[in-house]
Amino acid sequence: MKALDQALAAELGELEKEGRSKLPERIITGYEPPSDGRGPRYRLEGAEQSFIRMNSNSYLSLSHHPKVMEAADEAAHLFGVGPGAVRFIDGTFSHHRDLEQRIADFTGREAARIFNSAYTSNLGLAMTLAGPKTYWVGDALNHNSIIRAMRIAGVPRENKAIYAHNDMAELQRCLEKIPEGIERVIVIFDGIFSMRGDFAPIDQIAEVCEPFRERFSGGFVTVVDDSHGIGAYGETGRGTEEFCGRQADIIVGTFGKAFGVNGGFIAGSSTLVEAVRQKADTYIYTNPLSVADCAAAQVALDITDSAEGRERLQHLQAMASRFRRGLADLGWESIPGHHPIVPLLVRDTARTRALVQHFYDHGVLGVGLAFPVVPKGDETIRFQINAAHTPADIDHALSALESFD
User: Fold this and answer.
1) 353 and 393 both lie in a single domain
2) Do residues 263 and 315 both lie within one domain?
3) Angle between the 168-176 and 202-209 helix axes, to the nearest 10 degrees?
């Protein structure tokens, strides 16, 4: 290990020199329920004050919902805390099947298959669809899981193209340049782009793709990874597809953000889902979600798909709008949109770091993004509004920003 440790230490030093090393992880040690007009607060190891989490993906704030926790508890007491085997070796429980049917119904698809995360869902989908005559076209700002999925699936450079972010003219040019001999085309993109909070125009993408659909014997399909959109976007929480009024052919998503639980999924045709079950290594060779996760996710979906869920979504939208207006009133720059990801564009690395620390000192947690995570000049603090945030919470964060010198 001595030689390995020395080599790894040098590599870690290079990451730090390049500005790509991660800061030490903060440890959450406590939870304070909402009270007196303010939302929940979190305790961090080594900190005297408690914090508003404005860096959480739990958009609908369902992880502490009593019905969600009760469902997880009941399922764990019934079947235990772990599945004990992979799905095809008697590791499939009724909770897995029921959650797959529920998410298929929620997304308007024939079938679905659940994974441990949206990341492993994207890997499994790529393993299922990739081949020497498959061509991939993706947005330049696609999530790391999509990029990594292509690499792990062995997609060669000549079998893929990247179009500039949300540039429909360039997407069309990429499709026109697909080489001879290709039999299958996959156009893949994020629904909500997690660093910016803007969305893929699925309706426009579909229009650009339509003239090409009949040219390839192995199929031409669109894939949206709507991990940040599902549950948190659209009138009823159906995500970017609902917002745009058009579905992709295949949807990948997560239970770990708006639904507040854990796990990911692929939803599409029943034939696609069976192919995933047969071919996706990240499904076949690893234990599935626990029954507790499945039970909790199904109840979270039921809540989302109810009057209570719509009330939470409306409140979430109102709080995001309140924060966006506040940033504008204080003269700060953001990226226009309706999603609860609200970026604050600082455009300077040192100032971004100072402002993140300033928010921390005032009990607000946000994520600072600097080069190389974002291009130089686009240094940003990403805030994520949750349904548990109150007007007092939003105003507290804006007051902290106003006091920054």
Assistant:
1) yes
2) no
3) 30
Nearest-angstrom CA–CA distance, 127 and 292: 28
Tokens 């204080």 appear where? 330
Shared-domain flag, residues 255 and 314? no
CATH label of the domain that carries residue 326? 3.90.1150.10
- Is 193 inside any structural domain? yes
Digit-coded pLDDT (tens) for 10-52? 999 999 888 778 889 999 999 999 999 999 999 999 999 999 9
Contact 384, 55 (CB under 8 A): yes
Counted domains in the chain:
2
Distance CA 325, CA 308 (A): 26
Q: 140 and 50 in one domain?
A: no
Name residue, tokens 């700002």: 141
Q: What's the pTM value of the predicted model, to 2 decimals?
A: 0.95
Residues 6 or more apart whose CB falls under 8 angstroms from that of 220 comprise 184, 185, 187, 209, 212, 213, 214
Distances (CA, A) of 347 to 58, 326, 353, 370, 401: 27, 19, 11, 9, 16
For residues 140 and 289, membership in a common domain is answered with: yes
HSE at residue 191, side-chain half, CA atoms within 13 A, is 32
Q: Which residues are catalytic?
A: 194, 228, 257
State pLDDT tens for residues 124-177: 999 999 999 999 999 999 999 999 999 999 999 999 999 999 999 999 999 999
Range of the domain at 155: 66-304
Strand partners, 161: 137
- Are 216 and 73 in the same domain? yes
